[in-house]
Amino acid sequence: MDRTPGRDAVELRVHGISGVTAERILDHPIVTRVAGNGHAGFFRPRPGSGTAGGATDGVAVEAYRWGSLTAGAAVRTASMLLLLPFMLSNLAIWLRPPGHDRWGLLGVLCRLLAGTLTATFMLAAVGVTLDLVGWQCVPYPGCRAGRPYLAWLHVLPTGPRLALLSVVPLLALRVVWAIGTRSARAFEGFGPSSKRPPRGRNAGLADAGFWQDEQTTGWLRELHVVLGIGTLNVALLAGITPGGVGAPGHDVLFGIAAGLLIVAVILLALPVPASPARARRLLRPLWAATVVVTVCCLGAATLADPTPVGLGKLPGYEGAAAGVVATQGVLLVVLTVVTYTRQRAARGDERPFLRGLGTPIMAAAAVSVGAAFTATLVYRVADFLDHGDIPDPIRPNPPIVGPLEPPVAYWWAALAGLAALLIGAAVTSATLLLSRRRRRRLAARITERDYPDVAAQDAHRLRLVREAIARSRITEELGPVLVAFLLIASIGLATVAFDLIGIGPTQLADRLGGRGGGAAVLAAYVTDAGVWVISLLVLCLMVLGFRAYRSAQTRRVVAVLWDLGTFWPRTVHPFAPPCYAARAVPELAKRVTGLTARGPVVISGHSHGSVLAAATILQLPPSVLARVSLLTYGSPLQRTYARLYPAYLGPRTLRDLGGRIGWRWRNLWRDTDPIGGPIFPPGPDGPPPGVDIDTRLRDPRSLTIDPADTVPPPIEGHWPYHTQAAYQMAIRELTDRSG
Q: pTM of the entire structure?
């Protein structure tokens, strides 16, 4: 093919998070879509309307806009806030240390922990409907007074009432299932590079089918639905059994329901079947048994003898909530020990950030957010039903109103939430204060090198630059805060010992401080404060979700969280928001393959777009790679992703990435950028001798005002990069070296 350098060459820009417009990516007011659709597409300046901003002569500029995958649909974006605990639990496994995951132990622990989150979700629904409404409110005249929508339930005996209310948790489970399934249709399974799932539990980004997670998600979804329904069945049987679980008539059914739960947990711990046919053979009997047992449980409740409602909570519900919290605590401890032991066995140059504790830290975050959601829902409903009072064993409701007491585990969750907020704020403030002098010294050295001779009138401008550089280094100082969070969460879960024996914060304070003393009252008010704090935080998320539904701008803000949290496939929790990279990476690979047939392609990735660009190159075949180059700028590949995800984007992967494209790679970065940085810092993990990847750009370009301008050059920080000459020089060099 006769081609002069630069002819038919394409610069393919991939934007970062927050869903920017194609006009901004191209720095051009008039664009047209040349490929893709409304969810994600490829854009170029409209023919005859001029070139894109920052374009290099002879190189066509194209933009890939994928932001609508996470910020496009109002309902999808708002509803995803409900899935936040599930998203965090799915993210945990991807933060694991590098090295071989022997026996897939980390994956097993993360999947089991994710299963407890589904049980927590169902117990929250059970607590609101069966416990608070059906058991603790409806039987009492004072609670149902003025509420005709609840009064009619009093006509029903206890068993039929609980059976009828059981429909609500089933519908809640169906809604959560539908959110993830429906939103995934826009971009899951979009042109995968391979029809096979990734090979084994230690697959990397270069493995064929890495981004194809439909089979894994489908398998896990079926099991989690069984877990959720089984949790409801066990709770319903416990409520309708006179004398407690094990009484004649219901003990066999209870044993079968519990057995199905155990089978689902065992299947969660096993590897995903390699073939869909084998998965169906295992799931069909389990599903059939679950449906039959559920019908039998509802029938048993409907036909049950009238059960007198006693004081207290729904029988068995307190123990179930405490048991789930205890299981989460044990799993977190084991996960921490396994992760820490594994990272200690790693080589010195592979030691990850946070001592490899990213997985248990993220798992603790998932558990904490799930507990906050659950406690807020139960407490706010209880607060509504008892007309604004917050009862506890020290301050019970009048007999006519009913107990309306949430489980002890939720009291401890509220107290732990308040402690986590206060201690976390204190640790964050202390970390920033203690690191300020070190960050300022580093900023002073940088500015002295960049601006050796500063005029007196530019001294104020120099101080602003120093502060910008010092603030950009805050990211590196957050390690102690995250470790402190793990410790706080672990201490909070240590209260399971009190949960299991039914002792809440006020009861413990009453015993320690002497009965009738002020310690119990003080503990009650502190716990109330914790309830309101976590309730306000969750309500703020709900307001944010409502705003996301009404406002496109807020929707883009919410989408930032999903951009970072849903990059990885769902291999742990199937109710997590779907992985947008399952479409973005195969779609980029397909487009790049088509463009290289006509000339060289420079994939230009800004910020998080550089991560998508790297993942795309790792999926390209060798025949295409010869004409592909990579330009990254404001890139978090090394600064964030290599440190948090060392098993998937660590130094080995980055070196492999450079080798695949013959080290046709340039990275631009600034000291004032709080997100981007160099890809290969000095050390043994860098490129081959004589290869330069990183180019530092001085920012601002000058402290003084240009004679033709009226203000000094701005501090550009994270954006833009394409306006500097170094950008066009990199594009020209990479284009000339390709193909």
A: 0.89
